[in-house]
Amino acid sequence: MADPIDKQESATSHPKRRPRPSKPKGGESITAWLMIAPAALGLVVFMIVPFFMAFYFSFTDTRLMSPNPPEVVGLENYKQLLGIKAISMEPWIDAETGEYPRSRTILRSEEYKGERLQELTQVNLLGARYLVAAGDPIFWQGLLNNFKFVLMVVPLQTAFALLLAILINQDIVGANVYRALYFTPVVVPMVVVAVIWFFLYNPGVGTINTFVQAVTFGLVGPQDWLADPKLAFLCIMLVSIRQGVGFQMVIFLAGLQEIPQEIYEAASIDGCNRIQEFFYVTLPQLRNTTIFVVIATTILAFQLFTQVDIMTGGGPSNASMTTILHVVNEGRRQLRAGYASSITVVFFLIVLVISIIQRVIVREEKAVT
Amino acid sequence: MSALAASQTKTMHSREYRIRKAARATLNYVVMTLLALFFMFPILFMLISAIKTNEDQITGDVAGLQAFVPYPLEYQPYVEALDEQPVEMREAYTGLGIQNFRDVFRRTRFGQFMLNSIFISGTTVALGLLFNSMAAYALSRLKWRGQGLVLALIVALIIVPFEAVAVPLMLLTTKLPWIDGTIGWHNTYHVQIIPFIADAFSIFLFYQFFIGLPRDLDEAALVDGASRFRIYWSVIVPISKPVFATVAILKFLQYWGSYLWPLMVVQLPDARPLTVAMNEFFGQYPRLWGDTLAFASMITIPVLIVFMLFQKWFVQSVASSGVKG
């Protein structure tokens, strides 16, 4: 954008320099392509080609290391992946006794046998009970966890990062030291963080257990953190926030330092107190930074893998499963590359939607101002 | 007048004012220090446990604050003429030392894994800096047909996460030939390096920096008869150190901690990086805390040292990575 303006200016101010050594245009084109060739080749072979391969594989039964050539199976993978069905359950006697047939009996009955569904969950709705069955319950569990992660981690981490940035941004001695300390977890590889926290979450006698018992005065007894289906994923969320918040803090810090000091001066002349200043000056000025942080954290939430793989492996009983862990389990460990590709296609579409939302919000902002 | 009055009231209340200010400052530091502890305690736990040679001591200490204190064993076995004993014996006597680190080297091919990680991350970063900055130079400072389209494509590629292409890429790399005539890239260095050299986000960061440089630089050099590559190499690169540092740091952190991809394509130990080796070691039974945390420490310490030396650069890199969209 700034490009043509720049040129016009230089053309008007230095009219004599205009006849520059005009090389033939083709020559410049060739140079440009030569310079861009290595990177372009890399992007085509290792990003664009695999990207389209993923779409193609998702319609086949491709396997990793298989003697048989892959066959096109149409929408079969997507049927299994996305197939979900609510089946109303008839009680044996009546709803009062609460005795229902086993879900397996229903799913293996003549009516549903062909669909190869597995139980995902059972819900009670308006006095009736429904069996929710899916072609791939683990996928839904993983996806649900990713959304849970977004709902919990994104607001908490963003608010925490902003708080840290404001603390660091104060004009005090040693602010740089604190900034470095808060940022340190970001440079520690996630593999290491996951292993350390595996030990800290030690069941029975463990650092986290001792700490929790101490701050709750013994009300909360020792927990089996990573082996408890209710707690495992929460533990992973905590680890992720602590590891990632320093990154966002630094981005907020850059945003804070760009706010012109005059606005604060004007606000204090108008009689704003600290809290009003925060809500009427700081937050609106950080709007774009906040959008960036929220969207980036949301996309990262869907990429969640390393800490889960090391700390729980998705367990107990898939309570901490995630989409990407499921991709790796199916594609690498079960060798079902075709099926895994269909999961990555769905994953990509989710990320794409989030990115489009970001673009729309940011553009709206530009239209307003 | 009013300013004078204000300053008078200030001096009148100055004692109270100063006490309140001091209290606020103290509270501020207390909160900030507690937060610092929250961020640092797992790393301290790791480093301190790693130098405790007695496994029972480590597992006993995790229940309390002793986990963060390197202290000698209370019960000390009797050893005759301790000073003349080998160093292992002396360490066993006090319960402190580098025994765990020696064990890691004895039980695994740690040196090999460390070299693998350094070579893979170093090569990927170095080649990436060269090729991506060159591409960004062509995109930002040359005029050619198709330029706008290529730029748009690269910006679009930024949003494609690696996870979306990992599975097909894994299949693709089993079928690619290599210069020595073999087919299949798995269990090699290059399968961990080559796919990551070209990087859309790096190109974008370089592009943003180059587009802001004054145009006269190229024109003056062109008048002197320099080739475009020459201008890139001797004019643009030397004045673009900040963006090179930014990309190098961001990418190094990413490759050093890379786990998903090597997990998928490296099964044999020869080309295994530290992260996967760590996970492998961690999965072995009996699981020894001291050894595992010594392993983890040795992955972390190099990055921590580099971070402490170039702290300012790290923070600036991350800050500038946020300015996009």
What does the model show?
The complex is a heterodimer of chains A (369) and B (325). With 369 residues, chain A is mainly alpha-helical. Chain A is 64% helix and 6% strand. Chain A has a three-stranded antiparallel sheet. Chain A starts with a helix and ends with a helix. The relative contact order of chain A is 0.10. Chain B has 17 helices and no strands. The radius of gyration of chain B is 28 Å and the shape is globular. Chains A and B meet through helix 1, helix 2, helix 6, helix 7 and helix 8 of A and helix 2, helix 6, helix 7, helix 8 and helix 9 of B.
> How far do the termini of chain A sit from each other?
19 Å
Order of helices and strands of chain A: HHHEHEEHHHHHHHHHHH
Q: How far apart lie the N and C ends of chain B?
A: 51 Å
- The helix content of chain B, as a percent range, equals over 70%
How large is the share of residues in beta strands of chain B? under 5%
**Strand residue percentage of chain A:** 5-15%
Helix and strand composition category of chain A = mainly alpha
Count of helical stretches of chain B: 17
Quick structural gist:
By secondary structure, chain A is mainly alpha-helical. Chain A has helices at 2-13, 25-57, 76-82, 103-107, 137-168, 175-187, 190-200, 207-215, 232-258, 261-269, 274-285, 287-302, 306-311, 323-333, 337-368; strands spanning 84-89, 118-125, 128-134. Chain B is 70% helix and 0% strand.
